[in-house]
């Protein structure tokens, strides 16, 4: 398990800062060159230059690391060569060296060690970091990086500290319990990786100052209550008005109002909705 470090208040920005000690990482900022792409910024503007996303822009330059979410090199063992930081996601990533010479990045699970050998496919044992079909994973196991359609690549449970649990099997479906409390059916021919996603302390970090949000490319957000009525339903009023019931810019209530479509195709796969 990694830890957190609380800094001494040598400056106002350090006073409340709680940072990761990055003990789990094994290398500095030198990613595998063959798996790095350039990543350009939009500043929240679309192809005509109009701002379509507010609160984005600026921030430190990043390069994209190509991650293998499909884990489709079946039966070929791979050795973990590094565990690295990735600026594009909250989880850490691990570099695998396959026995046929290929290198790939995967999302690093908790407890992964350097030099460990990983495998994916039918023959893989259900050990941390291995990718198996849902039909082959033991019941009760914690899993991450789960596919929703066979061969699609993992789309669920990928951020830091996330995990789901394989509850049961029913016909051609596996029943998965997600961290939100939602219970869902997924085809057993879908792949998932064993274990919990790394960097579980991510949610306990505190940036310490506003400038750090700017480094991450997040621009300031104006409170709706401080706006005028023309800009937001909660704006205006004499003095410091409460703004009434919290709602979004286009009038949809913010707390507890159901917006999910009654005709949503995936309703049939959801056994139990998430807990409030």
Task: Describe the structure in your own words.
The chain has about 280 residues and is mostly beta strands. It is built from one helix and 15 strands. A hairpin with a 4-residue loop joins β6 and β7. The protein has a domain at about 5-40 and about 60-205 and about 265-270: SH3 type barrels, CATH 2.30.30. The model has no long low-confidence stretch (mean pLDDT about 95). A seven-stranded antiparallel β-sheet has the order 9-14-10-11-12-13-15, with no helix packed on it.
DSSP helix count?
1
The chain-level structural class is: mainly beta
As a whole number of angstroms, the C-alpha radius of gyration is 22 Å
CA-based shape? globular
Termini Cα gap: 29 Å
Q: Hey, roughly how much beta strand do the residues contain?
A: 15-25%
- Average residue pLDDT: 95
Q: What's the arrangement of strands in the largest beta sheet? A: 9-14-10-11-12-13-15
pLDDT under 50 segments (min length 5)?
A: none
CATH-defined architecture of the domain at 4-38 and 60-203 and 265-272 = Roll
- Biggest β-sheet: count, sense, barrel? 7 strands, antiparallel
CATH topology of the domain at 4-38 and 60-203 and 265-272: SH3 type barrels
Helical proportion, percent range: under 10%
What is the helix/strand order? EEEEEEEEEEEEEEHE
What is the CATH class designation of the domain at 4-38 and 60-203 and 265-272? Mainly Beta
- Tally of DSSP β-strands: 15
